[in-house]
Design goal:
2 domains, Rossmann fold, 15 helices, seven-stranded mixed beta sheet, alpha/beta
C-alpha cells in the first residue's frame, strides 16, 4: 500500500519549496553569495515566530513561512539573508563577555544596516524614522561592526534600548551557542565552515571583478570586522608546535582489552596504555607589549588577561614551556620569563606598565636575537607584538613567525610584507 502524505509532511515539503524559492531569489541578486545562501539545512520547530539558527540549521515554523510568503515575501527574503549575515559576520561565536541583550541588539542593527545599505530589490523596505536616525549615528561614529555598535548602545538609556529592540528585531537568537559550548566539536565545526564561507564570499566578489554596488563597502567592512576572541584564539594556534607530550593517550587506549587481561591473567593486561602522543601546543614564543605613550595600560592588561586565559587551558599549553613577556617603547624596558601556568597567574597579579616613550619595534627584535644567540630559545615559535602600529619596523625578515596585533586601523603600506597582522577590537579585552 502506497504511503498517504500527512498534513505535517505536506507542510514541511511546501515550506522547503518556499525556502528554496527565497534562496534562489536572493541568489539572483547576490550571485557571489551562492555558497553562503546554500549553507543551511532546514529544520522545523513548532512555535517559532521567525527564523533561527545555530550555524548549522535554519530553524523555522510552517505557519509564519506560509503567512509571510503570501503577504510579505520581501520580509521573508530579508529574514533569510539576515540570518545568513549573522553567520558570515561570526556574530554567533564572538560575543565574549559582552552583555547578552546589548550584543543581540547590536548584531541585529549591524545586519539590518548592511541589508538596507545594499538596496537590493528583493529585500527593499521603507526606512522608518528610527532607522534613519540610527544609521546616521553609525555613519557619524564610523561604527560598522557589531562590537562597535555594542559600544554605542552602552551609552543609551534603557527606554531607548527597548525602542531599538522593537524596531530591529528580525530573527530568534535562542540557538546561538552559549559560552560554555564554544569548545564543543559541533560548534567548532560550524564556525570553521562559516569562516570558509565568509572567505568564499570575498573571493567570489573579487573574482567576478564587477564594479562594487551601492552599500557593498559596508558588507566588506562587516566581513573584515569578523575578528574576535574566537579568531584571536585561532590565531594563537599559528604559534603552536608539534611535540610529544607524556601522558595517557586515551584516544589510543582500549580499556576493555586492558581490564580483560587483568581479569584473565591476574596482573597482565592485553594492551599497555601508550605513554605519549604528538600534539600541537604552544611551547616557546615571545609577547612584546608596546608601552609607548600612545598605548593604554588598561588595554594592555586586558590583552594579557585574554591571552593568558587562552594559554592556561591545558589543550593549548605544554606543561614545560618558555614564554617571554617584553615591555618595549623605544627600548626594551622589562623582560619577564614564563615557564608554567603558575607563572602566568603570578605575572597578572603583579603586572605593572613600564615605559611611556616613543615607539620603535627594532630593539625588541635585536633583544630576541641576542637571547637566541645565548641559547635561551631552542625552538622559538614566534613573536606577538601588541601595538597601536605607530612605530619604526625592522627592515630584515626574522627567521621566526612574527605577528603585529593592532588596536585600531593601521597603515598597510608601513607593515613589512613578511609580518602577519590582526586587527583587534578594544571591546575584546574589556572585563
Amino acid at each position: 500500500m502506497s504511503h498517504i502524505q500527512t498534513q505535517t509532511e505536506w507542510e514541511e515539503e511546501m515550506s522547503a519549496k518556499i525556502l528554496n524559492f527565497v534562496r534562489r531569489e536572493l541568489y539572483l541578486e547576490f550571485r557571489y553569495m551562492e555558497m553562503a545562501l546554500s549553507a543551511f539545512s532546514y529544520k522545523k520547530i513548532d512555535g517559532l515566530l521567525t527564523f533561527a539558527t545555530d550555524g548549522r540549521y535554519l530553524y523555522y515554523s510552517t505557519e509564519p513561512v506560509f503567512r509571510l510568503f503570501e503577504k510579505n515575501t520581501p520580509f521573508l527574503d530579508r529574514t533569510y539573508l539576515h540570518v545568513v549575515f549573522h553567520c558570515i559576520f561570526k556574530h554567533l561565536w564572538i560575543r565574549g563577555s559582552r552583555d547578552q541583550r546589548l550584543w543581540d541588539l547590536a548584531c541585529d542593527i549591524a545586519v539590518e544596516y548592511t541589508i538596507d545599505s545594499l538596496h537590493a530589490e528583493c529585500t527593499k523596505r521603507i526606512l522608518s524614522y528610527i532607522r534613519q536616525q540610527t544609521y546616521e549615528l553609525l555613519r557619524e561614529e564610523g561604527a560598522v561592526s557589531a562590537a562597535m555598535v555594542c559600544r554605542l548602545l552602552k551609552k543609551q538609556k534603557a527606554e531607548q534600548i527597548t525602542v531599538l529592540e522593537q524596531e530591529f528585531y528580525t530573527d530568534d537568537h535562542r540557538f546561538w551557542p552559549k559560552e560554555e559550548e564554544m569548545q564543543s566539536p559541533l560548534v567548532t565545526e560550524a564556525k570553521q565552515n562559516w569562516d570558509k564561507t565568509a572567505r568564499s564570499v570575498t573571493l567570489e566578489k573579487n573574482r567576478r571583478g564587477d564594479d562594487p554596488k551601492e552599500g557593498e563597502e559596508v558588507l566588506n567592512a562587516q566581513i573584515r570586522a569578523g575578528k574576535s576572541r574566537r579568531s584571536y584564539r585561532d590565531f594563537l594556534q599559528k604559534f603552536a608546535i608539534l611535540q610529544e607530550e607524556v601522558h595517557l593517550d586515551l584516544d589510543e587506549f582500549d580499556l576493555g582489552f586492558y581490564t580483560y587481561g587483568l581479569k584473565l591473567y591476574g596482573n597482565l593486561p592485553l594492551i599497555e596504555p601508550l605513554e605519549s602522543r604528538e600534539v600541537h601546543k604552544i611551547k616557546e614564543f615571545v609577547i612584546v607589549i608596546d608601552t609607548s605613550d600612545s598605548t593604554s595600560g588598561a588595554l594592555v592588561t586586558g590583552f594579557l588577561e585574554e591571552t593568558f586565559s587562552i594559554l592556561k587551558q591545558k589543550h593549548n599549553f605544554f606543561e614545560k614551556c618558555h614564554i617571554r613577556i617584553l615591555q618595549c617603547d623605544d627600548k626594551v624596558q622589562m623582560d619577564t620569563k614564563i615557564e608554567s601556568r603558575k607563572d602566568l597567574t603570578h605575572l597578572l597579579q603583579e603586572f605593572s606598565f613600564v615605559g611611556g616613550g616613543g615607539t620603535d619595534f627594532r630593539p625588541a627584535f635585536s633583544y630576541i636575537e641576542e637571547l637566541r644567540r645565548h641559547g635561551e630559545f631552542k625552538n622559538l615559535g614566534g613573536l606577538l607584538y601588541f601595538t597601536d602600529g605607530k612605530g619604526i619596523y625592522p627592515e630584515k625578515k626574522p627567521d621566526f613567525k612574527t605577528a603585529f596585533l593592532f588596536l585600531e586601523d593601521y597603515d598597510e603600506t608601513a607593515i613589512p610584507p613578511w609580518a602577519m597582522r590582526l586587527r583587534l577590537e578594544p571591546e575584546e579585552f574589556e572585563s
